[in-house]
Amino acid sequence: MKLQLLVIGVLAASSVSISAQSLLFAHGGADMEVDVAPAPELSPAHGITLEAWMTYDETLVPAGSSRWPTLARMNPTPGQETYMLRVDAGTTGARSIRFMVRTANNGSRSAATTFAAGQFANWTHIAGTYDGSAVKLFLDGVEVASTPATGALVASTDVLRIGNGDVSSPGAEVWSGHIDELRLWPFARTAAEILATRDQELTALPSAAVTFQFNSSLADSSSGLVAGGSGAWSYDASTPALTPEFSSSVDYGQSSSSCRAIGTAIGSLPKIGNAAFQPRALGATPGSSGLFFSSLGLQLPAFTFAGVDILIDPTLIRVTIPVAGANALGVAAASAGIPNDVGLVGRQYFSQFLILDASCGYPDLTTSQGLAITILP
């Protein structure tokens, strides 16, 4: 019944009307921020994509004093940030924006680029990613900077702060402009995936993703987190032009393995014509490979084959995709681009990864949790 209701919700999603708003931080020298309480979703173990739409008004950032306008920062404790997006204005009003992560191997690593005066006066999409090999920065879906880095993200149990950072120097890190559609994905997305969803307002992403629309609300529409705000920030009617979309994908069941749990995720929406669509397995052994299966039928309860649980009906398999080696943070991707075929709209597939993992012992197999995917128009 839940999955039937999901299909109905998907087909109706494009007709849903929303009152679009954004957050406005009008820099006046006083601190203001929106804080999301500590949660596992905010400190992902398998990489990260942090993205948002934003405007930035450097004319409101005073020169002569140290200023670091921060769009978002995980852990505002001085020198302890896990990841952040900010402008390094410094004391000169410099125009440099960067995405930074802190890893177990390298400490702080950043990807940064300079920008022209007034470049961000209009809405701009920004994204930062980290995949265990490089920190990358994207503007409007185009990679503009990359820096090598290795190791897991340093875990944090502090807050995710939006619109501000370290408040030990009052007002020094308040953002100056708008923030909208802030999203956090628990792995690094590709440039094609970022472009595929840049102009979409996403709701109900699976697998511990975080989506804040900021439409008169500080609630996350995917993981159910709710933020709290303080100071003089406000909701504003200025927004980027976005299309509301329901993700149409849900995870189900449990991973089957004697040594590790493998989750599933998506990096963009399963829309017809989306060549960038790539399901992910999260938590595989680095370098391990396998297969991604999609079936028209769901088989519950799970049955056991070769020591692992199968969550799909193998007699109705329609898609089988080889999965190359998982990256350094245990993420394996299946390139499952969706044809531009209207006959696929509304069709539901039940999917699962089968990973060959010698570290788990005989029979060297691990299966992921399931992923139910409904194809969108």
Molecular structure report:
The protein has about 375 residues and is mainly beta. The protein is about 5% helix and about 40% strand. It contains 2 helices and 28 strands. The strands form 6 sheets. Strands 1, 3, 8, 9, 10, 12, 14 and 16 form an 8-stranded antiparallel sheet that branches. The protein has a 7-stranded antiparallel sheet with strand order 7-6-5-4-11-2-15, with no helix packed on it. Strands 18, 21, 24, 26, 27 and 28 form a 6-stranded antiparallel sheet that branches. The chain is globular. About 50% of the residues are buried.
- Give the amount of beta strand, in percent: 35-45%
Instruction: Kindly state the percentage of residues in helix.
Output: under 10%
Structural class: mainly beta
| Radius of gyration from CA coordinates | 21 Å
Query: What's the rounded overall pLDDT mean?
Result: 91
Distance between the termini: 22 Å
Low-confidence stretches: 1-17
H-E string = HEEEEEEEEEEEEHEEEEEEEEEEEEEEEE
Globally, the shape reads globular
Number of strands: 28
Discrete helix count: 2
* Biggest sheet descriptor: 8 strands, antiparallel
